[in-house]
Write a structure and sequence with these properties.
Helix content is about 45%, strand content about 20%. The chain is α/β, with parallel strands linked by helices and about 325 residues long. Strands 3, 4, 5, 6, 7, 8, 9, 10, 11 and 12 form a ten-stranded mixed beta sheet that branches. Strand 8 and strand 9 form a beta hairpin.
Length: about 325
């Protein structure tokens, strides 16, 4: 029996995409959605869609923390909003409702979430928090830590991520807001870690200067395929992965949902209006053999990319939020 739309909307915000709402109901109010995937899968695009959708509906303010490239600018938001059907005379209103913050290291990420978001919550009616991505600074710190300290660094950072997550969920529960985290697929991170530090870690372990028994612990994956730690996944109401396929095709898979069936998927594509279903696409069950084929196709697509160290990331000073009253 289908749940009446008015009841669904009491607990979930619409994604603005009918087929996606059918799959996950929407973005959970007072809850966390974790969206992860490989590079260029469309995670940021989907997060920006959510921000524009909330801002255009006049529900309230959006606080968006960009931890990666500093590439979430006003022009990108404006062009996406226009493609999503926002009227031109409302674009400035939409832009003003999205406060963009940038963190260039984990300490800044922590301060923004713990302090600056706290001030914003007291000043504005906040309806959506977006962290894109929760994993960037964690991964960078762990990758660059000396072998003998990598375990302690990982534990310290996981503690910070747990506190940040609990704080954001407290904001959300108090106000009815939604929280969206993006993260990376762990498989590529594991390979990078092995390539860069495995040899040094083994040397240090033989000398007794480091004790790393489980690579998942160091990476913050804890047996899951996303970076951020089991704690984040445990608290998430929705966990979904975006698989990157040939051309602009994508496959959105629900891996865990508190109130909808798991292992359901939807074929989608990257468009000017963001992540949209392929024509005629409907949610379908995802079997193990299908996941194997998805993994093979994604690995083939990703392998075509030219590796570039620090791709898309430019050093810059910390910026104040760019929203307007």
């Amino acid at each position: 029996m289908a749940v009446p739309e008015h009841l669904v909307r009491q607990h979930y915000r619409t994604t603005g995409v009918q087929a996606l709402d059918k799959l996950i109901y929407g973005w959970p109010r007072r809850g966390l959605a974790l969206i992860y995937g490989s590079q260029k899968a469309g995670k940021t695009t989907l997060a920006l869609q959510a921000a524009v959708q909330v801002a255009a509906s006049e529900e309230g303010r959006v606080l968006l923390l960009d931890t990666e490239s500093g590439g979430i600018g006003e022009l990108r938001i404006e062009s996406l909003a226009l493609a999503m059907g926002v009227k031109e005379d409302l674009i400035s209103m939409v832009r003003s409702r999205i406060n963009i913050y940038q963190a260039n290291e984990m300490s800044e990420q922590h301060d923004i979430i713990m302090d600056e978001f706290d001030m914003a919550v007291k000043q504005y009616d906040v309806s959506l928090f977006v962290i894109d991505s929760i994993s960037w600074h964690y991964h960078q710190r762990v990758m660059n830590a000396p072998a003998e300290h990598v375990g302690s660094v990982a534990r310290e950072l996981i503690g910070k991520l747990e506190l940040q997550t609990k704080t954001l969920l407290k904001y959300a529960r108090d106000s009815g807001a939604s929280v969206i985290f993006t993260s990376w697929s762990a498989s590529k991170a594991k390979k990078a870690f092995e390539d860069h530090q495995r040899r040094e870690m083994e040397k240090a372990a033989k000398k007794g200067t480091v004790d790393v028994r489980d690579l998942d612990v160091v990476l913050g994956t804890y047996g899951e395929d996303y970076i951020g730690g089991r704690f984040v996944g445990y608290l998430a109401k929705v966990i979904a992965r975006i698989w990157r396929l040939q051309a602009n095709r994508r496959f959105f898979v629900v891996e865990a949902h508190r109130e909808k069936p798991d292992n359901m998927g939807l074929y989608m594509q990257i468009t000017e209006a963001g992540l949209q279903p392929l024509p005629g696409a409907e949610p379908i069950p995802v079997e193990r053999e299908m996941l194997r084929r998805l993994l093979q196709e994604e690995e083939a697509v990703v392998s075509q990319d030219t590796p570039r160290s620090g791709e898309g990331r430019q050093p810059s000073a910390r910026r104040a939020p760019r929203g307007k009253d």
